[in-house]
Structure formats: structure tokens, C-alpha cells
Amino acid sequence: MMIRTILFALCLGLIHWPSHAAAQAVRIKDLVEVDGVRANDLVGYGLVVGLNGTGDGLRNAPFTEEIMQNILERLGVNVTGEQFRPRNVAAVFVTARLPAFGRTGSQIDVTVSAIGDAQSLLGGTLIMTPLNAADGQIYAVAQGTVIAGGVGAEGDAARVVQGVPTAGVIPSGARIEREVDFEFSELSSLRLALREPDFTTAARIEAAINRRVGSGAAEMLDAGTVSVNLRRTGASSPARAVVAIENLAVEPERRARVVVDQRSGTIVMGEDVRLSRVAVSQGNLTLRIEEAPITVQPNPFAAGETVIVPRTNADIVKEPGIGLAEIPGGTSLSEVIAGLNALGVSPRDMIDILKSIKAAGALHAEFLVM
């Protein structure tokens, strides 16, 4: 145990990591979103036809029959009082994203998902389906052949499914019929929204823009917003102003963070994670229980019955762990992980150690467990 403790301390002392690695500059366009330049979600309710007997059972999905009647009546077919029992149709939800500056006539991709008891959408065709936004207006119309994301097959006593055959996509399956009412060219100022709000990063973006287009053009409003006065940039239009600033390089500042995934044993950490002085001791106890029942039978021609006598072997095994080791203040988490790896500590035990160090208040970082 003492040898393992000494080895742990040596690993921490012998492995040196640079205290401040050179930060990588990132373009402003990869750090922010321009206020107002965004996509909009669309949704619609439609019908997929042409399925090979894998559609909805209309008794279990009566809404499929209703939409069939509506479509046929719009096409001039009188189906009042008729009974539908086809198995080649399926009711679906159709979703899409209307991109920023999407123009009338442009095509976008759509996703089709069954909402009834259809078994597969493979080979089906989506009938003309209007797509609505949150305001209730129709912005696109979708139609086309569905490319299903899986396949299924079944027999009398077995069934096999690979992927998700009840969902699929239609590339360029919707055509934009209405544009979003947004006049970008009429803006007098731009607001840049940081994807990860941080005061230092926002200040660096402000400084980079002011150096490029002129002092006072950009102003940091808060940790997540930088305002750009278009009149002071000298650009002829808001689009030209965005072109002038979006490729400027800025070194983003990141919060010290440790992310662990207990299911896979993955540990991801930032370079700024630091530890205060703390002592660590870790050991494993394994409880082993084995059942070995014995069957006891009576002698031949003797009165009695066969019984099962339980036999249990229980044992507690103490596996080698880490003895009491002191981690000096200011040590980086990279050095600690390197030391634990040198000792052969498993990822799951490493996660437990990091949790305990965080609970002791010695791990100075945001600790996220997935």
C-alpha cells in the first residue's frame, strides 16, 4: 500500500502540464447568433399512401379514415357513408425547418413520422400536406416519396425490425409558399447573441469589432449580448456590416468544467480546472455470494421425500486501492488524472474520486454528471 501511495505522489510530481496552453482563436460567426436571423419550425398533418399492407389499421386509427374522406371530397369524390378498410395508408406528422431568408419557391427537407399503428412507411408517398408555423399560417407545402429509416419483416411466429421504419425523410420535399416578414436591410443596429454567455468573451468581441470598423461601433450590453451600431461601421447595408465582422478571430473564454458520463466511464475536462490541497484515499470492497444448493434423497425403499438443502458461500474481498495521498494546492486536474491512470484506477473509480473531491470543495469547476 505504501508503495502505491509513493508511486501516486511521484506521478503527480513527475508529469508536468503547461499551466496555460495557447488558446485557439475562433471566428465571431462561430460564437454568436445574429438577432433575428433564425430558422422557424413548421409542422403539418398528412397522409402517406402506397404502402404494401403496412399502414394503419383504421379501427385503431379512426383519424386516418377522416383525413382520407377529406382528401377525396376535395378531389370531387363523394364518399359519404362509405366504409374504408385499406391497409396501404398511414396518418403522419410532417415537420420541417424554415431557414432564415428562405424565399418563395425554395425547397426544404421534411421529416415524416407515423402517429398511428402503421408498421412501416417504406415505399410510401406523402400526399400534399400544408405546413404551419406557430402563428397558424401556412409557409410551405410538402409532397413526395418517403425514404424510410429502417426495414422490418415478420412471419407467423417471429418478427425482425432494423432501424425505425415508421419514420423517414423527403429530401427537398417541401416548397416554400410564404416568406417570413423580416426586413433585415432596414435595421439600424445589430445584436449579437453569444451561444455561451461570458463577460470576457463578450468584451473581446466588442474590442475586436471596434478595432476593425471603428471605435464605438460595438458595445457589450451583458454577458450574452453585443450591440453593433451600423451607422458607425461605415457599411452600406447590415449585410455588409455582418460580412465585415463575422470572420474576425476572437479567443473565447470558457468556464472551468468537468463532464462525466457514468454509463460509459467517459471524463471530459477543461484546461482551467484546478484543485485545492486535499488528501485522497480510495479502496474497493467486493462482496461475493455463491449459491450451491445440495439435493438430499431418502434411502431406497425408505419413507421420505427429496429435499433441497441451501448452501451459501459469502466472502468479502478487499481489492488494492489508493492509500492516503496528499494533492498539493494548485494542481491541475490533468495531473491528477494522469496519476490515477498510472496507478491503473478504473474510469468508474476515477469518477467516484472526482465526486468526492468536488463534495469536499477542493475541485474548482462546474461538475456535470450525465
UniProtKB/TrEMBL annotation:
Keyword Transmembrane belongs to the record: no
Organism: Salipiger profundus
Signal sequence, start to end: 1-21
Function: Assembles around the rod to form the L-ring and probably protects the motor/basal body from shearing forces during rotation.
Similarity comment: family membership: Belongs to the FlgI family.
Protein name per its UniProtKB record: Flagellar P-ring protein
Subunit structure and binding partners: The basal body constitutes a major portion of the flagellar organelle and consists of four rings (L,P,S, and M) mounted on a central rod.
Compartments it resides in: Bacterial flagellum basal body
Biological-process GO terms, alphabetical: bacterial-type flagellum-dependent cell motility
InterPro entries to which the protein is assigned, alphabetical: Flag_FlgI
Domain of life: Bacteria
Keywords (A to Z) from UniProt: Bacterial flagellum, Cell projection, Cilium, Flagellum, Periplasm, Signal
GO cellular component: bacterial-type flagellum basal body, distal rod, P ring; outer membrane-bounded periplasmic space
Molecular-function annotations in GO: structural molecule activity
Transmembrane portions of the chain: none
